[in-house]
């Protein structure tokens, strides 16, 4: 991709887990088990695959939205933690929970000198035009793109080619530029009755936990001692507690156990970054001073329920984001610098400031709502 972005594949293969909100209380225990993988059990080594040598997740996203609960985790965790719970459900209930049949690779993207709206377009358009279905997660520090493992070589080739800059759509398929892709995206969404909506009174903030290693280095002048085998001075495998901000995790658990479920929480763990949170602003007080970032923000998500679309549907992120960026730029509303996107297993959320979200709805609704 011809951009200043630093793009790399994370180690491992991953699964998407879709959990209906009505079943969230049943899956709370496995969600916590994945979030706290080294909780002191004697058989922890059974679950070590997918963790780094210092017991951190290579990648984990847990999202609870008004549409669904969605988890992106290493295949190992999906198989050993979530599958047993699903098997124990009544058959008709178990069918409503889904673990993706295909495994996914995760692209980690660090972009410099590019506004948010342009970044989403720059990253997603080559993949969409190559016919690769993706999931896109914007976090406080990085962007992450989930792509099917089987499409790895096509992803590499698409990045090398870069995005099409042609503005006139071709007359024949397949789409060869973003304009044609946008047309087809909105035709598909309208056909499947995908209507954009906001949740009344829901305001989000985008923030981060503190960098524990950096804090410890500042306080003590060095990093905590670890051996090459991830053991402590007593020869025991280091617990996840040795590597995380326990205050932050206690706050996370307090929000996750909200009954029947939190209204909105999206948490991303990536090995190279401190924890990243997109959070219902009403939960801020639970975290005290364990968060950094713009806690005074007023972000509003526009939800797109994609349950009626197959996971392999392509171009959704690029089509939606691209249309918003182009239309709102022409209106000189400045959306490009603020737009971010969250993909979950069965939904998408375009996230903008409160003012910009209302303008974005004005763009999207005429294109999607049937007359």
Q: Topology, pairings included?
A:
Elements lengths: L5 E4 L4 E6 L4 H12 L23 E6 L4 E6 H13 L3 H4 L3 E2 L4 E7 L5 H14 L5 E4 L4 E6 L3 H10 L16 H14 L12 E6 L2 H9 L25 H11 L8 E6 L2 E8 L3 H4 L3 E3 L5 E7 L10 H15 L9 E4 L3 E7 H15 L3
Antiparallel strand pairs: 1-6, 2-4, 2-5, 3-4, 3-10, 6-8, 7-8, 9-11, 9-12, 10-11, 13-15, 14-15
Q: Any overview of this molecule?
A:
Residues 100-158 form the CASTOR ACT domain. It holds the Pfam family ACT_7. This is ACT domain-domain-containing protein. There is one protein chain. The strands form 3 sheets. An 8-stranded antiparallel beta sheet has the order 5-2-4-3-10-11-9-12. The chain has a 4-stranded antiparallel beta sheet with strand order 1-6-8-7, with no helix packed on it. The protein has a 3-stranded antiparallel beta sheet with strand order 13-15-14. The relative contact order is 0.18. The chain has helices spanning 24-35, 75-87, 91-94, 116-129, 152-161, 178-191, 212-220, 246-256, 284-287, 316-330, 354-368; strands at residues 6-9, 14-19, 59-64, 69-74, 98-99, 104-110, 135-138, 143-148, 204-209, 265-270, 273-280, 291-293, 299-305, 340-343, 347-353. The chain has a single domain (6-199, 299-368), classed as 2-Layer Sandwich (VC0802-like). The model is unreliable at 39-44, 164-172 and 215-229 (pLDDT under 50). The chain is built from 11 helices and 15 strands. A hairpin with a 4-residue loop joins β7 (135-138) and β8. By secondary structure, it is of the alpha+beta class.
